[in-house]
Design goal:
single chain; alpha+beta; Purple Acid Phosphatase, chain A, domain 2; 2 domains; 6-stranded mixed β-sheet; 26 strands; 18% helix
């Protein structure tokens, strides 16, 4: 039998019709996608796993970009998915978990995209390009300053957006949020690329002379897909969005270098050690966009050059956050966008350190608000190092604003999510439960944690910054009031391996506790595209620069369910709120387009001549039809050309 399924939207908002792969013999559809050909939602079914590097493999210089693709350092396979299960750390002693009852909210996040103007005269690629094999540099800055991933930053974001759109069409997102570091060095054109990719505009992924724009794949202009216009997206500011390289004050020298033609000349010891950028002795280099592997040129000791090396100047490289104490120019750039909401959460006309702070309510039928906090540096103090500028900050004005927002949410009986760029006193890593201070002032960081415990409706702090998946529990300091505990979740970067986005669900459980589901998502990427190469570059860079061991084959994903206890008043408030639970799915790229498989099982051997819905055959426990276990099949696929 052949036919077409009409699928009821998994949020029950109406019917949608898709092109469906023909199905044969009582709705037994195509075989489940072959491992290695697709991308699993959440990496809960399958994910990217690095191959172990064989002992004795030849070293690869960081500048040997061609070898990143062919050497064993960047090779990977599809492997089994990951699931850390359900964590009950915040729950009362003896708590027994209950079932999910309803979905309250579904959203996505992106973090640390690091849109990079690789041809800017004021980046510092020489630090990584000239490094020795296995040398990550001071504070691991070498691969942060340069790896071949900088060649295709717009392409990676475009691939992530396409994947988000595909997921949204079958399980709608209520909103999306960007957790900072959209830019790499706070330049206008870097932010413009980010917004234009999200808006679906034509993209020219180069600057200055636009070398290689007609011949080099990562330099060629292209049309971005754009985020589905029905998904509102919001933004939080990061340290790289307003600081030079994310770690330096945007001095007059830096600002002039960005828009000028002379390649920046800094101290040979680099930007981490004062006076760093204000010194001289080393030209920082630029990528030659006319080369297929993005060769870095115009770098080296100044005494090796008869004249200062130059590039074509570009006024669009101008620094946005000037002065640093008020990111108003950065904020204003978000109002030049065709996607929604206007300004992407930011409020026009606000100045000072509060300019990038705001809150919003993502759903009209849900008592929940998201508080977006700017917790980045807003001060210039002479002779400070990178940790001063790149660390977390909450000054008196922002602390007062935050506590006011939290109190208003508490008084209004709203659940709350706090979104910021820099995590607050997180675990050192997913495996190491020791705490690592991320603020320049550790006392203020500890005080902030104590303050957050005062608001029992706070569910979650979400952050980026450290480019790793880490979940940190903050149990209540009062065992008699477990509702004062909250979770913190950090997500990985779209720049560095594993280059993932995150899908989130907030669910109400049958006992009116809350479950927060986090799911890393490997973007669907066209084979041999700039974004495809970037995935291999990202993994190879981690090993070539010595940041992960050659025998480390872990995925770096962390898919988890985090359970949060609510006060009796909030339990009563949210009782019966929410929509029916959706269904798991798998997505992959095929010759016909993007394929989406629902991970349900066919439960009928009865021939059906009428169109059916997911509700007819969704689960073994509820289907009115029966089929033997050995005949059960994954049964539903849509293909969107």
């Amino acid at each position: 039998m052949k036919g077409q399924i009409v699928k009821k939207n998994t949020r029950w908002c109406g019917y949608q019709t898709f092109q469906v792969v023909p199905f044969i013999c009582a709705l037994v559809l195509m075989l489940f996608p072959v491992s290695g050909s697709g991308v699993e939602l959440g990496t809960r079914q399958q994910t990217i796993l690095p191959r172990a590097v064989p002992p004795g493999a030849d070293p690869v210089a960081p500048s040997n970009v061609a070898a990143y693709l062919t050497s064993p350092y960047g090779q990977w396979d599809w492997g089994p998915g990951t699931n850390e299960g359900r964590r009950l750390t915040l729950m009362p002693e003896g708590y027994t978990a209950t079932n999910h009852a309803a979905r309250l909210l579904s959203f996505f996040s992106l973090a640390d995209v690091h849109m990079t103007d690789k041809e800017s005269p004021a980046q510092v690629p020489y630090l990584g390009w000239s490094a020795d094999f296995g040398d990550p540099g001071m504070a691991q800055l070498n691969p942060s300053a340069y790896s071949p991933v900088i060649l295709a930053t717009t392409h990676r974001l475009d691939a992530a957006v396409k994947t988000i759109n595909a997921l949204h069409r079958v399980t709608p997102f209520d909103f999306g949020i960007i957790l900072g570091d959209m830019c790499n060095s706070g330049q206008y054109n870097e932010l413009r690329w980010f917004v234009d990719v999200m808006d679906g505009q034509p993209i020219t992924p180069s600057s200055g002379a636009h070398a290689g724009a007609d011949t080099i794949d990562y330099q060629k202009p292209y049309q971005a897909a754009g985020l589905d216009p029905s998904i509102p997206w919001y933004a939080a500011i990061g340290n790289h969005d307003q600081l030079w390289m994310g770690i330096g004050y945007p001095s007059e020298k830096i600002q002039q270098a960005m828009v000028g033609s002379n390649v920046l000349n800094i101290a040979p010891n680099g930007p981490l050690i004062p006076p760093g950028a204000e010194g001289t002795g080393m030209y920082v280099g630029v990528v030659d966009g006319s080369t297929s592997n993005g060769t870095v040129i115009n770098w080296g000791a100044t005494n090796l050059f008869e004249m200062p090396p130059t590039v074509a100047a570009d006024s669009n490289r101008r620094m946005l956050s000037t002065p640093l104490d008020s990111p108003t120019n950065f904020v204003n750039a978000f109002f030049d966008s065709t996607s929604l909401p206007l300004g992407h959460g930011f409020i026009p006309g606000v100045t000072g350190s509060l300019a990038a702070c705001y809150s919003f309510e993502p759903a009209t039928n849900l008592p929940l608000k998201v508080i977006v906090l700017d917790n980045t540096c807003k001060a210039d103090v002479p002779d400070q190092n990178a940790l001063f500028y790149g660390g977390g900050w909450v000054d008196a004005a922002r602390y007062s604003w935050l506590t006011n927002e939290l109190q208003m949410g508490q008084d209004a009986d709203q659940l709350m999510v706090l979104a910021c760029h820099i995590p607050i006193l997180p675990q050192t890593s997913a495996a190491d439960t020791n705490r690592s201070s991320t603020f320049h002032d550790t006392a203020s960081e500890s005080n902030l944690v104590a303050t957050l415990h005062n608001y029992p409706n706070l569910l979650l702090v979400m952050a980026g910054h450290r480019h790793q998946n880490v979940v940190t529990p903050f149990p209540s300091p009062d065992p008699d009031h477990p509702e004062r505990g909250f979770w913190e979740v950090e997500t990985v970067s779209l720049r560095d391996f594993p280059q993932q986005l995150c899908a989130w669900e907030i669910l109400r459980n049958s006992d009116n506790s809350i479950s927060i589901l986090t799911t890393s998502v490997d973007p669907v990427i066209e084979t041999n595209s700039p974004a495809w190469n970037s995935r291999t570059y990202g993994l190879a860079a981690e090993r070539i620069f010595g940041r992960i061991a050659f025998d480390d084959t872990s995925s770096r994903t962390y898919n988890v369910e985090l359970v949060k206890y609510l006060s009796p008043a909030m339990q009563e408030k949210i009782a019966d709120i929410g929509e029916p639970l959706g269904h798991s799915m798998h997505i992959e790229s095929t010759d016909s387009g993007m394929a989406i498989d629902f991970l349900g099982q066919l439960q009928s051997s009865v021939a059906m001549t009428e169109p059916i819905t997911w509700n007819d055959v969704s689960a073994a426990t509820s289907s009115p039809y029966s089929v033997s276990a050995q005949n059960g099949r994954q049964f539903y696929r849509t293909v969107e050309p």
